[in-house]
Amino acid sequence: TWEVSLSSGADKKATWERLIAEGKLGALAFLRNLRNMAQVGVDENVIFAGMDKLKIDRVLPFRFITAARYAPQWESKLEALMMRCLASEEKLKGKTILVVDVSGSMDQNLSAKSEVKRIDTACGLAVLLREVCENVVIYSFSDFDKLVPDRHGFALRDAIIQSQTHNGTQLGQALKAIQINHPVYDRLIVITDEQ
After folding, report:
1. C-alpha closest to that of 56 among 30, 21, 17, 91
2. What secondary structure, in 3-state letters, does 47-73 show?
3. Hey, CA dihedral for 54, 59, 63, 68, is it positive or negative?
4. How far, in Å, CA of 122 to CA of 192, rounded?
5. pLDDT digits (tens, 9 = 90+) for 132-155
6. Rounded CA separation 192/99 (Å)
């Protein structure tokens, strides 16, 4: 496996480059190890060629968001991969109201051993839904509701995260306000860490 190759004591840069060239890394392993590849100086052209060959059809958007946090120099490439992954998804017909929790608890990691934050997962799901919904309106909520600009990909992630201060969790109040502005819709989706 790729783990065995890297732990054998061989030159890590050469090992990463060989693994990429031979197609020995799955998409998740590739994305999770971009930071390690950068740290040992793997050539960008080798990394980009490896990205082009990845089978990403089942990778969720939050994986690309997390990878971009640790390898921001390749964010545009990661975004293109993420959008390629979402392009083939079947569209949900009708109007969707999407409400994303940006309260303070969303800034915490998913678990003690995870580097993935709850907000990363929420933004990843929002990016996915933005691409698969025929007509979508996106709001964030914390202390109040806030309409999020109509963006795609990492720009949508940034708009959600920066939409308001990450404080309380006033979901009921936000839903009442949103339904005044949008009395007719086909579905309402809430992404939150609440029970």
Report:
1. 30
2. HHHHHHHCCCCCCCHHHHHHHHHHCHH
3. positive
4. 7
5. 999 999 999 999 999 999 999 999
6. 8
